[in-house]
Amino acid sequence: MSTEILMPALSPTMTEGNLSKWLIKKGDTVKAGDLIAEIETDKATMEVEAVDEGVVLDLLFKEGEANIPVNKAIAIIGDPKEKVEVKKEAPIEKVIEEKKIEKNIETKIENKKAEIIDTLSPKIEEDRNLSSEEITMRQALRDTMAEEMRKDNKVFILGEEVAEYQGAYKVTQGLLQEFGKERVLDTPISEHGFTGLAVGAAFKGLRPILEFMTFNFSMQAIDQIINSAAKTLYMSGGQINCPIVFRGPNGAAAQVAAQHSQDFSSWYSQVPGLKVIAPSTPYNAKGLLRSAISDPNPVIFLENEILYGLKGPVNNDINFSIPIGKANIEKEGKDLTIVTYSIMLQKSKEAALRLKEEYNLDTEIIDLQTLRPLDTETILNSVKKTNRLITVEESWPFGSVGSEIANIVQRDAFDYLDSPVIKVNSADVPMPYALSLEKLYLPQVDDIINAAKKVSYIK
Amino acid sequence: MKRLQKADYIKMYSFMLKIRRFEERAAQLYGMGKIGGFCHLYIGQEAVVVGILMTIDKNDSVVTTYRDHGHMIARGLDPKRIMAELTGREDGYSAGKGGSMHMFSKENNFYGGHGIVGAQVPIGTGIAFTHKYNGEKNICRTYIGDGAMNNGQVFEAFNLAALWKLPVLYIIENNKYGMGTSVDRAAAGLDLYKRGEAFGIPGEKVDGMNIFSVMEAADKAGKYVREGNGPYIIEVQTYRYRGHSMSDPAKYRTKEELDNYKQTDPIEIVKAEILKKKIATNDEIEKINKDTLEEIKNAAEFATNSPFPKDSELYTDVYL
Questions:
Q1: pLDDT (0 to 100) of residue A111
Q2: pLDDT greater than 90 at residue B278
Q3: Shortest Cα–Cα distance, B290 to chain A (Å)
Q4: Where are the domains of chain B?
Q5: Which class is A327-455 in CATH?
Q6: Is B151 in CB contact (< 8 Å) with chain A?
Q7: Which position among A38, A192, A260, A332 bears the catalytic label?
Q8: Has residue A456 got a pLDDT over 80?
């Protein structure tokens, strides 16, 4: 009997990998535990071991082949005599191809309808400096940090695994090599301590970029963020500012459960003295991160792990920035408004496409980009045009960013509303582990469509 | 340590006395309702901050706890403006927005005045990081109360300071009580200066009622830190005559204990030394006393006459 060796998922968010190196060749006998290949993921290069035993009958990919989907067969091992029998029935490649299709249906992260996700907002398309090449969000973030570090040697980076490991999510890749260990510092796992240290350094005039491996761990340090970073300018009567960027992934990753998946956007947005940014594309990640690093105030910069691999064009001008406090009208429309940010922009765009196809609704989508200060003007102008509003975000419903938007809109545009504002949020429970429950917990395209139907009085 | 000059003795005495008179006046204004909120007095602990003041460089940085009036005076800041902050007026160091616990003077490298127990320790460590990053020869003196010595971030900061050899001098002001809980009821192991040992940070214990001992230790420790050897811990054994804050009657300790400490009053020790060494006469000391009283009286008057912040100030200084 022959066994397929499948491309393994080596991280919670990995959907495909590159075959960097084969450590076996056709005809070799492998035992369970033998190293068989080196696989490069979105985060690192890792060795893969065999779990079955037999003779290598075939290697289905060459070294260097890229973007091989998770669960696709990469090699066949078994008894050499049986290989002939298998080939008699059907070509192995075809069997594998069919299996891959089945497996992909179960892929953890929905990456279907890539074409919608790739469409750009009118504003970005007008950008004359738009690169022809598309880069990932992680590259966009990395490049911006490097550009700002070249401009100002007061900018430095600290965090867990940012230097020698090259970033837990590879966002700081190459920075240690370019800027050295004085400016790219690996910290111990001690958020409270190193956050306080970075805040002190910012008080004294440096411009730290502090990476939280994920914002879940910022809870260890939240006293220093709120009581020290956010308040000292006020408490000192304007003497001591704190030019620091707290950045890292926020929100759900993939099946990492309650303690590693939550959205802190409304927590931080509640605090005067902080600015809060949540980019959604490589393009705005670049423009917004530059503004964050140049800002004299503490900035919470909420990235999203699933978006790190998202590709798109950027503006490569080293002075290109997007102002803090300005939302982007991602898509213009006349029938209803969706206000969203971060990863939910992708789902909102998908929903808008289906709303047009299935209900002939023309949706306007506002990507907030900055959560604090909130661009209320853009929201109100849109509501005055469409008369209907839904908010879409990944945070819990109680006191979310959408709650505040609903309040502002009922206060300042009450007479323009043709229906109550509806909020689409995650479920009001801790994040579950099971894939099926996780999907139920997170806002889905269908939830957005249902909300849109409701504000439009469509049964 | 360089030999003390006559002027040094006078400086010590004047600063300690100024702190004491300031705190007494603050207590009076508090009683009159001119100062609100929390107000933590430094009476009894004067030898600590003044002893360390004697060894400093003006470009060194300082960061401390909410018991900060004395540290500001020792930094050479204007008692008028300190008192005006206590009364919440626009001439205060924080324009009336910080109050007793949150005062700063960036131009004098005084970085607060922090209201959260322990928070100033990583912050001071970060200020020291900046001195090193900028290639400066200065150090950051970070004051810690005994209560904070059981707070996790303090040890995180010790680890970072030792790991990165940062020029930070930690001064533990052990006044025996964290609010109403005595050190022996809060700390497993009473030698707080040894708590850096696991990180390789040297430490020593000093009599904080005697300014000469504080000075000697601070001088030695300051040199060690300034030479790039990394952090150093001084634990100063001191005592606050008053309660934790103005609203604390201090029922958790006996009158005998307090009286016992008053026998070794830090200001009296210096005064005796001055008279013994014939550095000044009784009359000259009396003149210092009178001038100090006058200066603080003026400060109180200034602080009660300074206008309240304008209403429009509510919304300023949130963002730069």
A1: 44
A2: yes
A3: 32
A4: 6-307
A5: alpha beta
A6: no
A7: A260
A8: yes
A357 is catalytic: no
Closest CA of chain B from A264, distance in Å: 21
Mutate to test the interface with A, among B130, B306, B314, B316 (most CBs of A within 10 A): B130
**What pLDDT score was predicted for residue A95?**
47
Whether A260 is catalytic? yes
Greater pLDDT, B201 or A110: B201
Whether chain A has a CB inside 8 Å of the CB on B318: the answer is yes
pLDDT score at A256: 87
What confidence category does residue A88 fall into, taking pLDDT thresholds of 50, 70 and 90?
very low
Task: Specify the pLDDT at position A102.
Answer: 44
Asked if A232's CB is within 8 angstroms of B160's CB, the reply is: no
Q: For residue B97, give the nearest of A198, A235, A296 by CB distance.
A: A235
Report chain B's mean pLDDT, rounded to a whole number. Answer: 95
- Does the pLDDT of residue A83 top 70, yes or no? no
pLDDT at A226: 98
B93, B128, B159 ranked by CB distance to A193: nearest: B159
The CATH class given to the A3-105 domain equals mainly beta
Cα A123 to Cα A436: distance, rounded to the nearest angstrom: 37
Q: How far is A337 from chain B (nearest CA, A)?
A: 31
The predicted structure's pLDDT at residue A294: 98
Q: What's the token pair of residue A53?
A: 């035993």
Q: What is the pLDDT of residue A173?
A: 96
Report domain extents, chain A. 3-105, 122-315, 327-455
Secondary structure of chain B as H, E, C letters:
CCCCCHHHHHHHHHHHHHHHHHHHHHHHHHHCCCCCCCCCCCCCCHHHHHHHHCCCCCCCEEEECCCCHHHHHHCCCCHHHHHHHHCCCCCCCCCCCCCCCCCCEHHHCEEEECCCCCCHHHHHHHHHHHHHHCCCCCCEEEEEEHHHHHCHHHHHHHHHHHHCCCCEEEEEEECCEECCEEHHHHCCCCCHHHHHHHHCCCEEEEECCCHHHHHHHHHHHHHHHHHHHCCEEEEEECCCCCCCCCCCCCCCCCHHHHHHHHCCCHHHHHHHHHHHCCCCCHHHHHHHHHHHHHHHHHHHHHHHHCCCCCHHHHHCCCCC
Instruction: Look up the ipTM and state it.
Output: 0.92
Q: Work out the percent of chain A whose per-residue pLDDT is above 70.
A: 92
Residue A100 has a pLDDT of 46
- Nearest Cβ partner of B93 from A200, A237, A273? A237
Same CATH topology for A3-105 and A122-315? no
Among A183, A235, A295, pick the best mutation site for testing chain B contact (most B Cβ within 10 A).
A235
- What's the fold here for domain A122-315? Rossmann fold (3.40.50)
What are the phi and psi torsion angles at A19 (to 5°)?
-90, 95
CATH 3.40.50.970 fits B6-307, yes or no: yes
